[in-house]
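Appendix B. One record, verbatim.
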Amino acid sequence: MNPPHVSPRQLLLKMFEAAIGSAQPAHCVPPHLPSQGAGRTIVIGAGKASAAMARALEQSWAGPLSGLVVTRYGYAVPCQRIEIVEAAHPVPDEAGLRAAGRMMELVGGLTLDDTVICLISGGGSSLLPLPLDGITLEDKQLVNRALLASGATIGEMNTVRRHLSAIKGGRLAAACHPARVVTLLISDVPGDRPCDIASGPTVGDPTTCADALAIVKRYGIELPAAVREVLESGRGESVKPGDPVLSRCETRMIATPQMALEAAAAVAREAGITPYILGNAIEGEARDVGKAMAGMARQVAGHGQPFARPCVMLSGGETTVTVRPGPRRTECRIFTVAGTGAGGPSGGSRAGRGYRWRRWPGRDRGRGAGAGFAGAGLGAGNQARRCTAGQRRARLLRGAGGFGGDWADADECERFSGGAD
C-alpha cells in the first residue's frame, strides 16, 4: 500500500522538530530533578546547553538555590538565581579558566545535607579549562588545537583532556564530597559514555595516563614538556569508578541521540513512511561516512535493498575531519551528494536541483555530532546544541509511492532560549 500523500518538506520538518523537541531542556530537565534536601542546593554546570538547562531548572524549582553555569559565548539565557558565565569553545580561554576556578571554590566545604545539581552538555570540556599544577592555559590551548586537527575521535580527545585537568575526570565530584551530587546529562557523544560528555567532571574515569599517552603517540601530537611530564609521571591520574568520593554521586541521562532518533522515527511512521535507524554512534572520517551512506541510498533507490522504498534512514554520531578547509559536516554532505550522483548545491542533476543547501547565521562549525550523514538520514548526535546539532538535517529518499527520487533537506537553527541549543 502506498503511504498517504505527504509533502516531503513538511514531513522532514516535523521529524526534525520532534527530534529537537525531545532534547529541549524545558521538556527533559524537570522530570529528572532530585527532591530538595535538608541543606543548601547548589547548581553548577558547563556546556552549550547548560544555560538553558539552568533556566529550566529555575522555573521548576520552588526552594532556594544558587550556583554558577558556564556556556559558550552567545549562548547565555536570562536566569534569576543561577549565574551564567560565557567562555570560549572549542579552544578554551581565560574566562573559562576563571569560571572553573570559581566553580571549585563554590562547592568547597559542603556537607552531607547539601545537594549539588550538575548540568552537563556538549562543549563542557573546553568551557572548564582548569589545568593541573605545572600546566598553563597556553599549554592546554596548544594540546586542544592539536587534538582538534589530528582526526582523533571525541572519546580519544577527552581521554587526553581528563588527564590534564584539575576539574574533569571526576575531580569536580570529589570537590563536592560529602554532598549529594546529581548530574543531568545531555549526551553529544557516540555511545553516551558519561566520562566522555564534557570529559566527565562528576563521574569516574576508567582510562589512564598511559591511555592518554598512547593516543598522543597514535596521532603524532607534539606535547609541551609540562604536559608530557604530567602524563608520564602519572600525576594526571583521574578519579576512578568505585572511589569513595563518588559514593553519593548519581548520573541521569536526560537526552541522547537515540531518543532524538526515535522521536523522528515516530513521526515518519505516523506518516506511513517506514523509518530505519542505522545507528546512533556513527564515527569515522566525514568523507568516508558520506560515501558509505550515499552507497546505501543508491542501493535503496536502484534495487530496494536493504530497505524497500519509500523509507527514511536515520543516523546519528560524530564524524571527524582531519584538518582541511571546511567543517566536517559540510565535507560529509559534499561526499554524500556526490556519491548519490546529485549535483549538490550548484545543481547539475534532477536530484541536485531538489537538494536544498541552506545556510543559517550562527551555525556551529565546531566539533559535535556528525549529523545528517547519508543520502537519507536524520543526524541526531548532538541534539541539544544551540543550532540544533549544528546543522542537523533529514533527507527523505523519494521512492515508488509518490516519491520520485529527489532529495529534500531540512536544515534549521534555533536557540535554546526559544527552543533548541
